[in-house]
């Protein structure tokens, strides 16, 4: 079977050297390590601002760079394996291993440790940073800049309740391919909430649904419990109880809490199928 191009860097002219013998390409290259140095950057299907967005990368995420072309770089994200093109200016040299994550919905990256300092960017919930110093109530992070220390938590202190994290995102805009608290899609909501709990999961809903490591796969007619991950073709939601869910949806273009029956009815109309899979962690 052909490899999933979302998760494997290969094209007819160029491929990841690790795929030699598995795919055909004119040449194979080893990925060059780099790190995302902006708050958030779009990952696109083609090296063009007009190309569709497939995902996003957050500050501090590590990538392997396989190609550069006219201001864009073809990369693979080390967090979830996603492959695509991003603006080359978002990249910088590798940073030290992250020590903390952002716990505020978003926080400004400041030029100095002062409430009045100008900002260079905003970091989203879930962004991972390496703290290299502190002053007053601010933490200096590798790559340059300061963040309010109370907006950070050590990586060895995960959130206990991923459902509560998802509910913190109520009202965040829906954005196809979005993966930050500035805008996200249905599978990114789940990925972001579970990441805060210390769980790394695939990017897209079909990948999550078929991920053997993501809890127990249960039939759709089972009585739903809080925290169950609910999968339709092309959509995922988190159960709040047997009758309600939280999900990022294009219907109101928001992260919303809504009745399960209402979402299931809409999914049947939009996707031609009711609830297909329940995963219980």
Rg from C-alpha positions?
Answer: 19 Å
What structural category characterises the helix and strand content? mainly beta
The tally of strands reads 25
Structural shape: globular
Measure the end-to-end span. Answer: 29 Å
- DSSP summary: helix tally: 4
Helix content: 10-25%
Order of H and E elements = EEEEEEEEEEEEEEEEEHEEHHEEEEEHE
Q: What fraction strand? A: 35-45%
- Identify the strand order in the major beta sheet: 20-25-21-22-23-24
Question: Stretches where pLDDT falls below 50 for ≥5 residues?
Answer: none
> What does the largest sheet look like?
6 strands, antiparallel
Mean pLDDT across the residues is: 97
Structural description of this entry:
The chain has 281 residues and is mostly beta strands. Helices cover 12% and strands 37% of the residues. It contains four helices and 25 strands. A six-stranded antiparallel beta sheet has the order 20-25-21-22-23-24, with helices on both faces. A hairpin with a 2-residue loop joins strand 18 (179-180) and strand 19. Helix 1 (162-168) packs across helix 2. The protein is globular, with a radius of gyration of 19 Å. The two termini are 29 Å apart.
